[in-house]
Structure formats: C-alpha cells, structure tokens
Sequence to fold (323 residues):
Amino acid sequence: MRKIILAALLATFVQGSTAFAEKFPSRPITIVVPFSAGGPSDAMMRILGERMKVSLGEAVLVENTTGAGGSIGVGRVVHAAPDGYTVGFGHLGTHVANGAIYKLGYDLVTDLEPVVLLPSNPMIIVSKNAVPAKTLADLVAWLKSRPVPATAGTAGAGSGSHIAGLAFENATAIKLQYVPYRGTGPALNDLVAGQIDIIVDQLSNSINQVRAGTIRGYAVTDSKRSDQAPEIPTTDEAGLAGFHMTLWSGLWVPKGTPREIVAKLNAAAVDALADPPTRKALENLGLQMPPADQLTPEALGAWQKAEIEKWWPIIKAAHVTVD
Ligand code: MLT
Fold:
C-alpha cells in the first residue's frame, strides 16, 4: 500500500515538474550581471537578451548586482529558486578565479548548473593619455621606472581585469597597485579622466575610447590582431611573446533547475549566438564566438572544471588578499 502511495506521489511530482517545465517561461526572466551597467559583461548580456526574449517569448531583464569581484551577484543566483527565472552571467573571474580568492560560502561547481558558453573577449593593455609611452615596450619601461607602483583599475579582486593584471605583472616582472571598481565601465571613465594609470581591460570595453583617442591602446593579448582593431598589435608583435589571454564567459542557473528548463535557456542562447544581427553586434565589439561544438551545458561544465585546475594554482601563488 505504502509503495503504491509513494509511486503515485512520485508520478504526480514528475508530472508536475514536467508540466512546469513545459510552460516555462510564463513570466519575465532575470539575468544577473555581477558587474556595473555599461561595462563589457553588461553590454554583451543586453545584446544577447534582446534576441533571447524572442525565442523564449518572455522579457529578459538584466539586473546588475555588483561587488566583491562579482561574487555577490553569483551568490544571488546560487540562492535563487531553481525555476529558470534567475540566470547568472559570469566569466573566468567570477566562476573560476573567485573560488581561489574569496570564502564564497557557495561552491562554483556543485551549487550551479552550467547553461551555455558565451563569447570571449581578448584583453587589451590601455593607459591614460598622460603616460609618456607610445609602444608596449615604452609602457613596460615606464612602469618599471616608477618609484611607486602604477595604479591599475580593476572590477575587484578576482575579476577578469584583475586576473589579467596579475598575468601582466608575471609576464613583465612589474608591480601594480590595483584600484577596485564595481566594473570596468566606471574604471574606464577614471582612466579617460586620468585618475588611474592603466587597465588590462576587455577589448569590447576599451575599443571605442582607444579609437576616439581618449586613452592609449598598446596591444591585444591574443595571437592574432582583432578585426575590430587591426591597428593594435598583438602582444607577440609588441614584444611580449606568448602573453595571451581571452576572457571566456557563460550562463549558469541554480543547482536543481530542471534539465528541460536548462535546455530551453541553452537553446535560446544558442539561437541568439546564431542570429546574424546579434552576432554582428557582438563581433563589432571585438567579441569572439564560442566554438559551435562547445555550446552544450556539459561543455561549459567541463571547460569550467579544466580552467579551475589551470588557474587556481596560479592565483593562489599570487597570494591575493581581499579585505
Ligand atoms: C565588467 O563587466 O565590468 C567586467 O567583466 C569586469 C571584469 O571582470 O574585469
């Protein structure tokens, strides 16, 4: 008798969650971007959201929940209901580096479900115009000549711009004084205003200011020049051979979100990445599309784990302290 009741209950539950997944979505979806509005992560997600709402049939709202290198926004997603209505944007910083820096209170792998890999961003080394340097070699010489470390804007400890700064320090044997912001959007404003010296920024964030001549761009951290900035040399060409870094990104949902809902969110993102106007808008920012065979939730999960294995030793060796 007990077994029959349990079976009936289970059947009702499965029926319920499948029916629930079938009706998903039936109200707007919130995508939590853990960095400031107007920055590179926000810009990418707003472009993608515009197209995702078409295939999902419901509004896709971007919410900027910032602070602590993006770990506060990720925590908001970890603790949200696993119903598909709260989705988290993240990248190498928030979903890898932060795990080696902060006492997060959540696990980046087991408390989240990967949804899809998103475009990646080559980094670019930029400075305020007042820096007396024309080439990357000049810049490195100037950074080394300073009595006190130059200031480098970041989106907080563990963010992409911070990890890239650490890698730049390692590659050039310089020391930087990091100045944290809630995103590289506001950091860039201060660079233009000459308040800070440099940023190792995402190309999509700085490219327009470099073009406008309000800041100086020295090199992109990629093996090939960006189609969007063919005038900017690669780090290889600029004398920092092998210093390559592109900031990959993705979407995650809370652990326990039904697989059917993860599949629907994945399909909407994949559709957006394939949509010609959306793709063009992303590529115009210098963003690089993820490989077509890497667009499953499992592919993101596997990639995240591999990056954790690669980056945690490097980041732990840097002894990054957070207040
Ligand atoms: C942002 O959108 O501000 C960036 O992703 C921050 C960063 O990680 O550097």
